[in-house]
Specification:
Elements: H1 2-12, H2 16-31, E1 39-46, H3 64-72, E2 74-76, E3 79-80, H4 85-94, H5 120-126, E4 130-136, E5 154-158, E6 170-173, E7 176-179, H6 184-198, E8 204-213, H7 221-224, H8 244-270, E9 277-283, H9 305-308, E10 309-310, E11 312-315, E12 324-326, E13 330-331, H10 335-342, H11 359-363, E14 374-378, E15 381-385, E16 389-391, E17 397-399, H12 415-432, E18 444-446, E19 453-457, E20 462-464, E21 468-469, E22 479-480, E23 488-495, E24 499-508, E25 517-522, E26 525-530, E27 558-567, E28 570-580, E29 588-596
Parallel strand pairs: 1-8, 1-9, 2-12, 3-13, 4-5, 4-8, 18-23
Antiparallel strand pairs: 2-11, 3-10, 5-6, 6-7, 9-11, 14-15, 15-16, 16-17, 19-29, 20-23, 21-22, 23-28, 24-27, 24-29, 25-26, 25-28
């Protein structure tokens, strides 16, 4: 009775809106287990533009599950990420601009997040959460850059910037190479569902960075058939640039994403976790092609509005007001402080964050929110966004309220705004870009004492002599045209712990190359292996591509165990070359695995 009287007295002192939120909160508390912290599911898609949702007014696509998240949660109308993949991932993981964390490229080591950066997963794990990531990592492959070294208990997917085959491809599970099961986004989502089921009694942080609609534009028939003959009612404002078949494939992939998010939402409801789970959805950059995007200028790779504006939806049943729309600008750097505050985690003092918690915008009414600048930087171009204006990389000023296409430079009308934004931009470039060294001296780590596996792919190697990369985009490439004993492939590594390591090479070769001998040398130690098995499969991928790809086609590579090599601690050069060649070339080479014995 006493407790009931206290509740009634409290209700009498609340406004009508307060009463509603009070009962929402009561229901949420009742549904939670005592002391249980809220779960967090962070869904990140790859190359899905702001306009690739029916939620945002695209008439040619249907995304009912993501739309339902917006109905039951909150939408940030102007949310900004980076122009490309790995920088956005670094920013949302750390709450800091990507260049501060050493990320300056999307391959060849430049995608790696510095090891002294603290990630979201580190923070959640330190606070008792079970953590997992399923999908495309793209912030470093070799441990401790690997997701298992950045706070994730479980990882399934690939660490590269893109993947060459979406149908049961080679993937990895906690460093060990495995074979995927079916269409990749479906497979990744299934792993997420299994993780939720296994951890429904624990607080968990689930990161689901899906690999689509990034190219290659591989789409299963059941999703493609809806779009292959479709006539679009809306197109990009640069109609002469739009590749309709590419747009059709992208929309098909986006509808598949929505279907998988529907599976995820159902699992959360089915397990009774809906009122104890925060779910976030966003993309990592603008669309990977000229298609409908609300009239904005720019696509992926651009620091203009269309290249960096992302959809952003967050739901937490019983806590976040359904259908809330946040007009204030926000960005990927805000995710870490926001999720920390929502889950009641105190951030320890350390490196200063560039982001700020968005919780006042989620729960406040008519709050005094100071205007701010959000920085978008890529490829030596910096653009600054305020609530009303965008200063582009050429210091042209645009009023984004009525000119999303950035067609009219209004610098002359707003000289004080221009001056202030240019000053901020110059200061930011001087301060933040100076944190990147002129030369990246980071080596590729091998043999960390806490991890068994080290993968050294063709992506991270340097070819010498006749050897060529299968494609100019290195992320999912292989080496070919290996014709001479003077040819070599080199990796610059740092062995972190002395020991014996099993060396496994993944290759293909024709029957005429049987008998070739390859040598792997690291410092003074080396091992040799004669190739005795032919395996010469065709390139694959084209059969399921809906448009011609830019990236490399791939093969079914097989392993050959070269034996055991002794590695001494320290910086070394790892070299793979041929001692003897039979036939026209030695092999096509995909990767080396070094496994601690």
């Amino acid at each position: 009775m006493e407790q009931l009287e206290r509740i009634l007295k409290l209700i009498l002192n609340l406004s009508i809106a307060g009463v509603m939120m009070f009962f929402i909160s009561c229901n949420t508390v009742i549904s939670k287990k005592p002391g249980r912290k809220p779960n967090v599911i962070l869904i990140l898609t790859d190359d899905q533009g702001w306009g690739d949702l029916s939620l945002n007014g695209n008439p040619d696509i249907r995304t009912p599950n993501i739309d339902s998240m917006a109905i039951s949660g909150a939408v940030f109308d102007r949310f900004y990420v980076c122009p490309v993949c790995s920088p956005t991932r670094a920013e949302l993981l750390t709450g800091r601009y990507h260049v501060r964390g050493g990320v300056y490229s999307t391959s060849a080591g430049g995608e790696r997040l510095d090891l002294d950066e603290i990630t979201l997963a580190d923070i959640f794990k330190q606070n008792g959460y079970k953590t997992a990531a399923f999908g495309k990592w793209h912030n470093g492959m070799q441990y401790p850059y690997h997701p298992n070294g950045r706070g994730f208990d479980d990882f399934y997917g690939f660490c590269s910037g893109h993947w060459g085959n979406y149908f049961s491809p080679m993937l990895e599970h906690n460093g060990k190479l495995v074979k995927g099961d079916g269409f990749l986004p479906d497979d990744l989502t299934t792993k997420a569902l299994e993780f939720i089921e296994a951890n429904k009694e624990n607080a968990f942080f689930l990161y689901l960075p899906l690999n689509t609609p990034h190219s290659p534009m591989q789409v299963p028939d059941n999703w493609w058939n809806k779009f292959k003959d479709k006539e679009f009612t809306s197109k990009n404002t640069n109609r002469h640039n739009e590749w309709l078949e590419h747009s059709k494939a992208a929309y098909a992939l986006c509808e598949n994403i929505d279907w998988n998010i529907g599976r995820l939402l159902y699992k959360v409801r089915e397990t009774g976790l809906e009122e104890n789970t925060i779910i976030v959805f966003l993309s990592d950059n603008g669309p990977n092609g000229w298609r409908w995007n609300g009239g904005m200028k720019g696509i992926k790779g651009s620091t203009d509005e269309g290249g960096v504006r992302s959809p952003f939806v967050i739901k937490w049943n019983g806590m976040i007001e359904p259908g809330k729309k946040v007009e204030q600008i926000a960005g990927a750097v805000d995710l870490l402080p926001t999720l920390a505050e929502l889950t009641g985690i105190q951030l320890n003092s350390g490196k200063p964050l560039d982001g700020k918690s968005l919780t006042p915008l989620l729960f406040g009414k008519n709050i005094d929110w100071e205007d701010r600048y959000i920085v978008n930087h890529w490829n030596e171009k910096t653009s600054i966004r305020s609530q009303q204006f965008r200063l582009d990389h050429e210091n042209k000023l645009f009023n984004m309220i009525n000119d999303p296409g950035q067609t009219e430079d209004v610098a002359g009308e707003y000289p004080e705004v221009l001056k202030k934004m240019v000053q901020f931009k110059n200061h930011w470039e001087e301060e933040v870009l100076s944190e990147l060294p002129e030369i990246d001296k980071r080596t590729f780590p091998v043999g960390h004492p806490d991890f068994k596996y080290t993968q050294l792919p063709a992506r991270d190697g340097k070819p010498y002599g006749n050897i060529q990369r299968s494609n100019k985009f290195p992320n999912c490439s292989f080496f070919t045209n290996w014709k001479s004993v003077d040819d070599s492939i080199v990796w610059y590594i740092e062995v972190l712990e002395e020991g014996d390591y099993e060396a496994i090479v993944y290759y293909t070769c024709g029957q005429e190359s049987i008998g070739s001998t390859i040598e792997l040398s690291i410092g003074a130690n080396s091992i040799e292996k004669k190739i005795i098995k032919a395996h010469n499969p065709p390139l694959m991928g084209a059969e399921m591509d809906r448009v011609e790809r830019m990236e490399s086609y791939v093969k079914d590579f097989i392993p050959v165990n070269m034996g055991i090599v002794r590695l001494k601690k320290g910086t070394e050069t790892l070299t793979l070359k041929a001692k003897d060649i039979k036939g026209a070339q030695v092999m096509d080479f995909r990767l080396i695995m070094l496994n601690r014995i």
